[in-house]
Amino acid sequence: MLQFKNIAKTFPDGTKALKNVNLTVNEGEFIVIVGLSGAGKSTLIRCINRLVEPTAGQLLAFGQDVTKMSDAELRRWRTQVGMIFQSFNLVKRSSVLQNVLAGRLGHTGTMRSLLGMWSHDDIELAKRCLERVGIPEKLYNRADALSGGQQQRVSIARALCQKPKIMLADEPVASLDPPTSHSVLRDLKRINREDKITTFVNLHFIDMAQEYADRIIGMRAGDIVFDGPAKDVTEQTFEEIYGRKIRPEDTRAGAVREGA
Which of 29, 157, 196, 244 is the most buried (most CB within 10 A)? Predict the structure, then answer.
């Protein structure tokens, strides 16, 4: 469903964030991307919805080149790509319901959404999305009254409310404690399995990458240095990605972080 063909990104300061990346992604895959700070993980996934504009190459989505989409085509494409951020990106003073309904903005007229004139179907969909992430009782709470883990579940529900074909999760558990991190990743993996939504997750934590990924992509300085099933990852693989041996305590505690 996705093909990266020699995708490159050079930022104005000369930083080469991506160097002729080539990937083929199949429908329904759960892909975890690992690597140190500056490896290109966030740049890679943000090229998919063009939050980052590639400098060169083609990115084909169902045969159409995303890099050449018109503004109208790009707006339609983005309704099919859900995005989950490390910082949640919620409207803190709004209710959980209103935040989840924001996932319908691309499907609803601007004036109707500004006035909060959501259809019955949209509201029911938002409620179902909250049920799927286990917090239906938080429907009318303000977003800033929730814990970090609950806020991240709201952001997952918001993305799910788009009815996306692709889900992008950029360090979704970096600010969460380990038990909550596992809970959030289990939600993402279950939704991936149930809905066949192709999912990309950037992670710091090696143990979580191995536990949840179908496929691991290892990046280093804008290059892909590993691409394969999670079961094929070895100690040598992580040494190639991180440039050093990984101690057992690093793997268990997720100590191999950006900049660590």
Answer: 157
